[in-house]
């Protein structure tokens, strides 16, 4: 897909999200009348949820509990997991042929098994009568070549969060180029500050939130397409240059090896406390800094959120794509393909997925900072400053691939591990490139 077409799709998505849209109508009332006195349908759900995240209690109350209250003919048995435990459980369920009725999933990457083995139903026919209620970019086919889930919205896996108040106090400005960022290192070190914080103890973090952006800048989507088509290799100069630039971040003092000892959520209070002026993560990180309705407290209080800016990594020397960040369709929920067509369970599962992608549900996620809406007409006057900042983040940016969304796990896992090895000084960029190419060749051969 050309960059021009991506810009058009992104602009269409953003415009659609701001238009007045269709009003959600719950199909539950009709279904309840039809079900009469039958026993409730039991739906098992595997859900991705950070139990400690701000807004989690509100999501459970206003989305999950509200559905059960309004649909007494359906009983939800929900299993909430987060990060690696969630992914491990999903793969275990898939391998055993025991997937829940409804499950949280990605458009590719960590959910590749669900897509390529068609373990999720094709939601295309279900969504067709209501297609106009969504941005068209949200409904493009996913990794399996069909619509396995309806994304909550667009997601940028790379954001550089900037504490502008901290920069001002040190006489520094938001860098426009990598050279300007590197020049800040002595000043920040002298002040006892890190330069960039990352919670990269889990190996996916660097690849998804930083390196995918670097590859987008230095290799470009066309270059990655050539690698995927076998017309270029990971060992060719562009990809090796991307690995070498990543290695230079540690050599230049822009990144510290301490990022590999920092847990994913452990980084949140460090940034909130001003331990560094920059944090690199995905756009979803916003929710961790907003007010938790259950405590009325925030890691970054609303009055201080005006000092936090969401931007992207500065210009990289030799980049072929400018002003870009790695982007992907957001997450969503799929329905188990084994559920019989036309059954009460299928109707109940679709009713749940409709609700989970409804205007009301997407408004809650927008207000809690967990997702930027894919449905038209989702607006709110309750957004905290940082959530407002997120809603304006995408304007004018070019979207490039997130590697774990376009590569098979057998290929991107060696990248994940290799990035940690480079950062720790265990492997060289050339060695990692060779390892990834070997993994790609083996995976390609297995597909024939």
UniProtKB/TrEMBL annotation:
Entry keyword set: Signal
InterPro entries in the record: Bact_solute-bd_prot1 (IPR050490), SBP (IPR006059)
Keyword Signal belongs to the record: yes
First and last residue of the signal peptide: 1-22
Database matches in PANTHER family: ARABINOSE-BINDING PROTEIN-RELATED, DIACETYLCHITOBIOSE BINDING PROTEIN DASA
Protein name as it appears in the record: ABC transporter substrate-binding protein
């Amino acid at each position: 897909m050309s960059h021009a077409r991506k810009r058009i799709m992104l602009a269409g998505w953003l415009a659609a999200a701001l238009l007045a849209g269709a009003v959600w109508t719950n199909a539950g009332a009709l279904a309840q009348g039809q079900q009469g006195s039958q026993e409730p349908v039991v739906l098992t759900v595997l859900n991705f949820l950070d139990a400690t995240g701000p807004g989690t209690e509100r999501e459970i109350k206003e989305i999950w509990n509200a559905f059960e209250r309004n649909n007494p003919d359906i009983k939800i048995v929900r299993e909430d997991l987060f990060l690696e435990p969630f992914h491990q459980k999903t793969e275990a369920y898939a391998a055993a042929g025991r997937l829940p009725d409804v499950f949280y999933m990605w458009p590719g990457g960590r959910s590749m098994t669900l897509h390529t083995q068609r373990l999720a139903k094709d939601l295309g026919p279900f969504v067709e009568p209501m297609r106009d209620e969504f941005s068209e970019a949200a409904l493009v086919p996913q990794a399996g070549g069909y619509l396995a889930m309806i994304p909550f919205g667009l997601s940028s896996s790379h954001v550089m969060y900037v504490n502008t108040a901290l920069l001002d106090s040190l006489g520094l400005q938001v860098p426009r180029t990598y050279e300007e960022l590197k020049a800040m290192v002595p000043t920040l070190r002298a002040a006892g500050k890190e330069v960039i914080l990352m919670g990269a103890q889990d190996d996916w973090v660097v690849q998804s939130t930083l390196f995918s952006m670097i590859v987008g800048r230095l290799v470009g989507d066309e270059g990655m397409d050539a690698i995927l088509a076998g017309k270029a290799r990971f060992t060719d100069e562009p990809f090796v240059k991307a690995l070498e630039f990543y290695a230079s971040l540690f050599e230049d003092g822009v990144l510290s090896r301490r990022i590999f000892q920092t847990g994913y959520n452990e980084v949140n209070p460090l940034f909130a406390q001003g331990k560094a002026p920059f944090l690199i993560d995905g756009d979803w990180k916003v929710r961790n800094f907003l007010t938790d309705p259950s405590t009325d407290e925030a890691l970054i209080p609303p009055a201080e959120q005006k000092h936090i800016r969401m931007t992207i990594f500065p210009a990289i020397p030799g980049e072929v794509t400018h002003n870009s960040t790695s982007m992907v369709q957001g997450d969503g929920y799929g329905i188990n393909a084994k559920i019989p067509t036309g059954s009460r369970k299928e109707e109940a599962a679709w009713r749940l997925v409709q609700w989970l992608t409804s205007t009301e549900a997407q408004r809650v996620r927008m207000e809690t900072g967990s997702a930027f809406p894919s449905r038209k007409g989702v607006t709110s006057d309750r957004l905290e400053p940082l959530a407002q900042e997120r809603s304006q983040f995408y304007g004018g940016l070019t979207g490039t691939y997130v590697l774990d969304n376009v590569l098979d796990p057998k290929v991107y896992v060696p990248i994940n591990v290799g990035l940690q090895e480079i950062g720790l000084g265990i492997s060289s960029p050339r060695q990692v490139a060779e390892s990834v190419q070997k993994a790609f060749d083996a995976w390609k051969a297995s597909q024939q």
